[in-house]
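does this look right to u?? dihydroflavine-adenine dinucleotide version
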Amino acid sequence: MTFSGFNRLIVASLPYLPKALVGLIARRYVAGETVEEALEVVKRLNEQGFEATLDILGEHVEFPGEASAVADAYVDLYCRIADSGLRSNISLKPTHLGLAIDGQICRESLSRILAAARETDNFLRIDMENSPYTDDTLALYRTCLEQYLRVGLVLQAYLYRSGDDLTNLMSSPLNFRLCKGIYREPPEIAIQDRAAINHNFLILLKQAFEGGAYVAIATHDRPLIAQAEELIRQLNIPPSRFEFQALYGVPMKGKLETLLAAGYKVRIYVPFGEAWYDYSLRRLKENPHLAGYVLKNMFQHRRVH
Ligand code: FDA
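got this back:
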């Protein structure tokens, strides 16, 4: 069996493995189950020069009570970040706050979270989920902006609509994260070809820079990062206009440290919480190499100790 065949086999077996074993693999991508564990990870990242954005894992809550509990947890998280003096903002998913149940429930939860962001003078990023929620998420963002300016959202380079969305959003001051897009979307609305998605990523980045937006450039694709850096140089964009972002645990072969050394801001997206299991399975399916890699590390670790 080839190495990649072996990795795929591990990934295919994950749902049948004991949760504790998946937990060992998950440690790479998830900063633990509790706020304390997550803050410890952020502290370490801050010491290394990175900013962070904390995300409580979960999505698609089904009951209003759940959405309210999630909002409580985010309010508490803003206070804990402020008390600890760490450099982290927060990212959240609208369906975790009840968007799939009812827009009003989600708006109420968000409003409480925004009040906590304002009290602690921090920033809130609203993640972008799959296309059935795009319009509602854009509307939510606009409602948030009326309450508090330090809020941002995400645009996905694979969606054909993102160029127009960006144009509309730039009628107000804009801080957005640019990513490729992680959900499976139909060809009628989303570019399918990898190279074409990258091409659109750079078109959107240029449009954003020329339109005056602040951009969080969120990708692990090192050639694409190099092209973004080239564009930054060509357009002479100062570091105060952008940052780079990566997911906690995704191997970057020293690229993030190089970006820091170049004087750029780099923010790590740090997910944590009890819903780590599904998140970890998704991460491993996206990158089957990691399953083999982590397993190898586990056994090396055992041998040493
Ligand atoms: P690409 O897919 O080309 O990956 C480059 C390399 O990194 C490959 O070697 C790949 O295997 C590895 N890699 C990439 N992602 C990995 C992962 N998760 N786990 C393990 N290895 C990985 N999407 C979205 O739709 N809405 C959102 O709100 C966000 N938010 C977000 C925040 C941040 C900080 C990041 C970095 C990404 C997102 N995304 C997202 C996800 C994004 O849309 C995209 O799907 C992934 O980042 C993968 O694409 P890359 O740009 O990294 O390139």
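The beta strands are 51-56, 88-92, 124-126, 151-156, 175-179, 214-218, 242-247, 266-272. idk if thats expected tbh
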